[in-house]
Design a protein that fits this description.
Belongs to the universal ribosomal protein uL10 family. The chain is an alpha+beta fold and 316 residues long. The chain contains ten helices and twelve strands.
Length: 316
């Protein structure tokens, strides 16, 4: 049987967790491997204004959430249960999800390579002078790292991939990295899932901007319009295109026949005598101002070729 002290701690934890479930409606599931107590204190201090960090045993968190859902009838938080696996915690928040995630990612600290640790990323030792004396060359030779002696110190000839992601760190690698003062790994809370009012999704969704959504919506509208036009099936997306295409067809008939209507009259007049819609070109005069006149003529050229100066618009 658990002691009274353990029971009281579990009851206090349940009270705290249920209070957070009542107060917040958004949260992050975060992975917390290799995060130290000092780092946790910094994270809590940095997020205190709008968020709360809760860690605990997975079985206890699951039990508290299940009982809370049964007692309150609010089963939206039950979406968290499948994600409470491994060394994870919950960051409850009232702030903007993207901004809070950015703040969480700021609390990352470098860590040395320890013997037996599984490398989370590749480790590459850069070429250059190490500052070590020639008596330290045995470490480099044991790891097949090409070196040379330069001005009484060991110099690495070229970049070397020392450890691959997923490999365990050996004693020689850890000793060498420590001698070189390299902290190849970094640790912090890693956001795994985002919870928002009953929905659970990947944190990559937070990278989607309003411009991305707008471009996706426009692309969808274009595809619907194209399909509608190909199938001769009118939709809100295709109606503007259908109206313009219909106008073009009627205009083509009017130009090819004697039939006319107000919008077609200007087109017919222009086709019959384009010169009537052209402005008179600037006259070049001799004298010292000739070059200035040429520059003025060039500057006015685009205006002469615009549709407005032709005196008509297709939709007047």
């Amino acid at each position: 049987m658990p002691s009274s002290s353990k029971l009281s701690k579990k009851e206090a934890y349940d009270t705290k967790l249920c209070g957070l479930l009542d107060e917040y409606d958004r949260a992050f599931i975060v992975h917390a491997d290799n995060v130290g107590s000092k780092q946790f204190m910094d994270i809590r201090r940095g997020l205190r204004e709008h968020s709360a960090v809760l860690m605990g045993k997975n079985t206890l968190m699951k039990r508290c959430i299940r009982i809370y859902c049964e007692r309150t009838g609010n089963d939206t938080w039950a979406a968290l249960l499948p994600s409470l696996v491994g060394n994870v915690g919950i960051v409850f928040t009232k702030g903007d999800l993207s901004e809070v995630r950015t703040q969480i990612n700021k609390f990352v600290v470098g860590a040395p390579a320890r013997v037996g640790l599984v490398a989370p990323n590749d480790v590459i030792v850069p070429a250059g002078n190490t500052g070590l004396d020639p008596s330290q060359t045995n470490f480099f030779q044991a790891l097949n790292i090409p070196t040379k002696i330069n001005k009484g110190t060991v110099e690495i000839v070229s970049d070397v991939a020392l450890i691959k992601a997923g490999d365990k760190v050996g004693g020689s690698e850890a000793t060498l990295l420590a001698k070189l003062g390299i902290k190849p790994f970094s640790y912090g809370l890693v956001v795994q899932q985002v919870y928002d009012q009953g929905s659970l999704y990947s944190p990559n969704v937070l990278d989607i901007t309003d411009d991305d959504l707008m471009s996706l919506a426009q692309e969808g509208i274009r595809r619907v319009a194209a399909a509608s036009l190909a199938l001769n099936y009118p939709t809100l997306a295709s109606i503007p295109h259908s109206v313009i295409n219909g106008y073009k067809n009627v205009l083509a008939v009017a130009v090819a026949t004697e039939y006319t209507f107000p919008l077609a009259e200007k087109v017919k007049a222009y086709l019959a005598d384009p010169s009537a819609f052209a402005s008179a070109a600037p006259v070049e005069t001799s004298g010292g101002g000739g070059e200035a006149k040429k520059e003025e003529a060039k500057a006015e050229e685009p205006e002469e070729e615009s549709d407005e100066d032709m005196g008509f618009s297709l939709f007047d």
